[in-house]
Design brief:
The complex is a heterodimer of chains A (448) and B (262). Chain A is mainly α and 448 residues long. Chain A is 62% helix and 0% strand. Chain B has eleven helices and eight strands. The chains are: A mainly alpha (448), B alpha/beta (262).
Chain lengths: 448, 262
């Protein structure tokens, strides 16, 4: 029986890690389909951003209630990884609470106490997380918080969000089932595989276990095994579900905040090719450096965007804080910054799949601009930076919007007529209106 | 002060003089009737302070902000490079401007085109002088008046300047009150990103209508602004609400000029 379990465990974990890395490689390749670009060369600053914003959750606290609820799940997730280590050791060696018994056999009292502290914390946090998860389900489905129920959340995105929450509930039930079954077996005694821990039961499971000691041993073993296997299987399911889900932010929030832009938020990224072309118009002696490959102005499709924009898209957990703050969205326009990110991710997935199946020249006659994001959406943006400011993981929907606009205006020449007037005025009068520069000082006459 | 002169860069250069500060007026400040009054108010403040400054006048071009944000990088580069050439030719070191869009572009976008200047928004300029005791604001005119302040996106979120304009307003002997959504959470007036030059996309209301309503919620006597476009947008929004007789939209430079009888 032991042998079967060990074999099964090694096979399952091997398969799930293999499948995960395969999926991770696909995501990496998809992100690398984007335009190459150096974001910054300041590792110390990048790490600082990661520590403060991703690890320290700083920007989450722009909404205190959501931040506190999220913090419970986040801390709980991080701490639970400690127990996961032991689960792996037990699984591979067919042991039971191998870490604790290792400390015990060496009489390392301090570490035994630390072990109790960890598991007790996990139990308390798990219980809290259970409550928070219910609260999250409640907010999303019963109260129907507006930002979680915009049109772009219909269908898969809403199911995705709810599935993750249900996975979490299952995982927590398994943790308690495992600890309670284990303690009840210890109390009953007589089963060599479940020797009693000399510190007694854990805080929560230890107070429920005594009620179950009258159950038959076989049933308790099933309870414990169900919990143990259920726990680890849920971890494997999670691992392989992440790459398909919005929940990927638990991993990508870290690199994404590391690669935050150092430039001021108000700066729109320069286009050196156009800068050089204009420079050579003004200055005959200036020779623009040769550019490799075809020059594209802005982005028509997802792979015209920077790799950082694509990393942004994969890091988005669709919380909708950007859309909630967007002035265009608040006044009923079609634009939703969250949808910009979701569409970008969907499209790069599709391009990636196409390239893997049909080679690098894959084309399906679709594009991000037009088929996924409409002209009406990007024209509604006021570039006010509210979406960028609101994002807890430093995503910029604005960068994508500007890149799409650049394509719309400079490649597709599909500018609104009023903007064409403005451009003409700027070219002829160096002012956006039809005033002559010669009149630029007329206001002085009104001064006295 | 009946003889207000405004020094022009080219004239000073012809005399071999280089002023300490360039006052960047901006297109709205030069041509828009409402914004011209803000330009005048700020020029009067500069004159009253005896500031060593000049304007570019006919040589000033649009910074290119609306072109770049609308996606027309060619037009942006044409304007920006022309401006950088002019500014560098006059060896300009320090710029003050009453427009947050000009402020942002000059400060953040010109360095990669070879234009490096110390750029101040007029709120920062006035705050500095108030702190140093050089600009003494006489309170009387606004005593007991309720003033709220609307953060321009390109001053606030884009450049994290939140306190300077507030410090300027608080130098008046008035009753300052914040809107519900202020500072980094302030709602845009609706003009940025070149929206000023086109009709809104279809929706259920205009952004400036909504922002004006938020401002009117605090029952102010004045809605202080620090951007010519916010000024236009909020003035329209207040009009739409039929409140233009009771509530004035006013630039912080005008507040100071009025307080000091300039």
């Amino acid at each position: 029986m032991q042998f079967v379990q060990i074999t099964l465990f090694i096979l399952l974990s091997g398969a799930s890690f293999f499948l995960f890395f395969k999926q991770a490689k696909v995501i990496y390749d998809n992100i690398m389909l984007g335009r190459k670009e150096k974001i910054h060369d300041d590792p110390a600053w990048g790490l600082q951003q990661m520590l403060i914003i991703a690890f320290g959750q700083k920007k989450m606290f722009k909404i205190t209630s959501a931040a506190l609820l999220h913090l419970v799940i986040y801390v709980s997730f991080v701490i639970t990884q400690i127990e996961l280590l032991e689960v792996f050791i037990d699984g591979v060696f067919g042991q039971h609470r191998a870490v604790y018994h290792f400390f015990e056999s060496h009489r390392w009292l301090f570490f035994q106490q630390l072990y109790y502290l960890s598991i007790n914390m996990i139990e308390i946090l798990s219980l809290l997380t259970f409550a928070v998860t219910i609260a999250f389900l409640w907010r999303r489905n019963i109260i129907r918080l507006p930002r979680l129920n915009k049109p772009e959340m219909d269908g898969w995105p809403r199911k995705d969000a709810n599935l993750i929450l249900l996975f979490e509930l299952t995982l927590i039930i398994c943790i308690f089932s495992m600890n309670i079954g284990d303690r009840a077996l210890q109390l009953k005694g007589g089963n060599l595989h479940y020797p009693a821990l000399n510190g007694g039961g854990f805080l929560l499971s230890g107070s429920i276990a005594p009620l179950l000691t009258s159950l038959p041993e076989g049933l308790l073993i099933i309870l414990e095994r169900f919990g143990w296997w259920g726990h680890i299987i849920m971890v494997f399911v999670f691992l392989n579900y992440l790459p398909k889900s919005k929940h990927l932010h638990i991993m990508l929030a870290f690199p994404n905040t590391y690669f935050s832009r150092k430039e001021p938020k108000g700066e729109i990224i320069n286009m050196p090719q156009i800068m050089n072309e204009v420079k050579s118009m003004f200055d005959d002696s200036f020779v623009a450096p040769e550019v490799e490959g075809e020059i594209k102005f802005g982005a028509k499709d997802a792979n015209d965007l920077s790799w950082k924009n694509l990393l942004d898209a994969y890091s988005c957990t669709e919380c909708g804080r950007c859309t909630e703050q967007c002035p265009a969205n608040q006044t009923g326009k079609l634009l939703s910054p969250r949808k910009i990110m979701m569409a970008t991710r969907d499209r790069i997935e599709e391009i990636g799949l196409g390239i893997r199946e049909h080679g690098p020249d894959f084309s399906d006659n679709k594009s991000l601009l037009g088929d996924y994001i409409t002209k009406e959406e990007i024209l509604a943006c006021t570039t006010c930076n509210a979406c960028v400011e609101a994002c807890p993981v430093t995503i910029s929907p604005l960068e994508i919007i500007v890149e799409l606009r650049r394509n719309l205006i400079m490649e597709a020449a599909d500018s609104p007529a009023e903007w064409n007037n403005m451009f003409t005025n700027l070219e002829n009068n160096q002012a956006p209106w039809q005033f002559s520069r010669e009149d630029g000082l007329n206001w002085v006459d009104d001064m006295n | 002060m009946s003889d207000n002169k405004v020094p022009v860069m080219a004239d000073l250069a012809a005399e071999g003089r280089a002023p300490e500060i360039l006052f960047w007026v901006g297109c709205a400040g030069s041509f828009d009737q409402r914004a011209q009054r803000v330009t005048i108010a700020f020029a009067k403040i500069l004159n009253a302070l005896g500031t060593d400054y000049a304007v570019l006048g006919k040589e000033e071009c649009c910074t290119g902000d609306p072109a770049r944000r609308a996606g027309n990088e060619f037009v942006f580069q044409m304007l920006a490079q022309q401006n950088v050439a002019t500014l560098n030719a006059y060896n300009v070191k320090k710029i003050v401007t009453t427009c947050p869009h000009c402020f942002n572009t000059l400060k953040n976008e010109y360095p990669s085109l070879g234009g490096n200047y110390q750029v101040l928004h007029h709120s920062q300029f006035m705050q500095e002088l108030i702190d140093e005791g050089k600009l003494v604001v006489e309170g009387g005119a606004f005593k007991g008046k309720k003033i709220t302040y609307h953060d321009p996106c390109y001053l606030g979120r884009a450049n994290d300047v939140y306190e300077a304009p507030r410090a300027v307003i608080e130098s008046l002997d008035s009753d300052f009150v914040e809107m519900r959504n202020c500072k980094s959470k302030a709602l845009c007036c609706g003009a940025g990103g070149a929206q000023m030059w086109k009709e809104d996309e279809p929706g259920n209301s205009r952004i400036n209508t909504k922002r004006a309503q938020q401002a009117l919620e605090v029952n102010p006597d004045y809605i202080a602004v620090a951007c010519p476009y916010c000024n236009t947008m909020l003035t329209d929004g207040v009009k739409e609400a039929g409140k233009q007789e009771d509530v004035k939209v006013i630039d912080i430079a005008e507040l100071i000029a009025m307080a000091n009888g300039l």
